[in-house]
Amino acid sequence: MVLNEAFGEPTIAVDTHIFRVANRTGLAPGANPMAVERALEAITPPAFKKGAHHWLILHGRYVCVARKPKCALCVVRDLCRFPEKSVDA
Fold first, then answer.
1. The CATH number of 2-79 is which of 3.10.20.30, 2.40.70.10, 1.10.1670.10, 2.40.50.140?
2. Helix (H, G, I), strand (E, B) or coil at 57
3. Does the pLDDT value for residue 89 go beyond 60?
4. Which residues touch 89 (CB under 8 Å, ≥6 apart)?
């Protein structure tokens, strides 16, 4: 995250929110944060790397939350591979 913000180097640091979103959606599944980071780095176009980090964190914080995801609000709900979607979807 420091590389992304302080030094302007486009990269995707994987925190708990990004890890959850990447695995639930099938965007970049992985057994650990490093595997998810590598997968996201490989599939994210360079022009979007700086922003993607923030977009994924915010999506994980406010929509794809840990205990009760707000699937009805999710803009990628139709693409999501998470089998236990919330009942409000």
1. 1.10.1670.10
2. helix
3. no
4. 71, 72, 74, 77
What pLDDT, in 10s, does the model give residues 13-63? 899 999 999 999 999 999 999 999 999 999 999 889 888 989 999 999 999
Residue type, 16: T
Separation of alpha carbons 19 and 76, rounded Å: 16
CA dihedral 72, 80, 43, 63 (to 10 degrees): 30
Pick from 61, 62, 40: nearest CA to 52: 40
- Asked whether 61 and 18 are in contact (CB, 8 A), the reply is no
Please check whether residue 62 is in contact with residue 11, taking contact to mean a CB–CB distance below 8 angstroms: no
